[in-house]
């Protein structure tokens, strides 16, 4: 089984050309848990196993220089969060479940890019696994977006209107 990574190109700002930014990947592969999830009657009454792979990207994690767990994503804390999600969620589709994991990694752990794979092993007798894999990029921090908007507002306030000379 090969894992090929296609990391996103991150942009420094909307006015600059695309420049690749190195990403450090923190990953958890083969996390196994049980939960009630599915759309068929047979899936709604007892937990079934899920296998979860998570890859979370950070632009050059500070932990590379500081050697402090507080400066990166602690995969021990992520696995605890996954265990809690397995118990608390009320989702029916693997797509929505994977999306929730991606949101958690971005919102709670500060990942800039994530890949989440969720698999139901042995769902069907003649198939080893079914599942979904998604990739998400975190929205730009508010400070970057507001800088561009502030420049437009400043131009408008100075009398420079688009299309007018």
From TrEMBL:
Residues 26-136 form the Dihydroneopterin aldolase/epimerase domain. Its EC number is 4.1.2.25. Pathway: Cofactor biosynthesis; tetrahydrofolate biosynthesis; 2-amino-4-hydroxy-6-hydroxymethyl-7,8-dihydropteridine diphosphate from 7,8-dihydroneopterin triphosphate: step 3/4. It is an enzyme of class 4 (lyase). Pfam families: FolB. Coiled coil: none annotated. Keywords: Folate biosynthesis, Lyase. InterPro entries: Dihydroneopterin_aldolase, FolB_dom, GTP-CH-I_C/QueF. It catalyses: 7,8-dihydroneopterin = 6-hydroxymethyl-7,8-dihydropterin + glycolaldehyde. PANTHER family: DIHYDRONEOPTERIN ALDOLASE 1-RELATED. Belongs to the DHNA family. NCBIfam families: folB_dom (TIGR00526). This is dihydroneopterin aldolase. It comes from Ideonella azotifigens.
